[in-house]
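Lab meeting, action items carried over

1. Structure of the two-component assembly. Owner: GW. Status: complete.
Input record:
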Amino acid sequence: MPMSQPDLEAALRDGFPDAEIEITDLAGDGDHYKARIVSSAFKGLPRVRQHQLVYAALKGRMGGELHALALETSAPA
Amino acid sequence: MTDTATQNPVHDWIAKSVAEHPVILFMKGEPEQPRCGFSAVTVQILDHLGVEFVGVDVLQSEPLREGIKTFSDWPTIPQLYVKGEFVGGCDIVKEMFQSGELKTMLEEQGLLTA
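Predicted assembly:
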């Protein structure tokens, strides 16, 4: 059950309104994405917590609808 | 969650396993034969560092495959635990390996000789 890139981007925009978001479709199959997210929400958080925030924004679709999402998260410098 | 009725026996089993094994990887397939690219990469990193670890194949048990996700509040597999702490999935392990952070952490925990 792939998830379209606009759907993914919309979900991430909702979760991180201030963020700089860059999504790459790694395999061209709508199922393997890479997202680079730079948001102040990540400031001071360990990486596990940063990624958990992203998964929370995806509301359970990660691991189900969305098989693979490589994440690169950081706070603005 | 102190109500014993809501306790998940799979969570108990996972808690016991991560307490017993200093480095444990919940993965798809066996370390010798991973059945997912993300699990394979994580195994390669651990092998490259030369750290001893226990691999648990979550594909052998549907309750375990689901339970590990709720245990750590992490929706994907693989999941690496060091000394009972959840370290991360493939992306985080890879990033920590590339920065040298993973090796330093394992050395500090006495799991690798410097």
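2. GW to write a short summary for the group page. Key points so far: The first strand of chain A starts at residue 20 and ends at 25. The radius of gyration of chain A is 12 Å.
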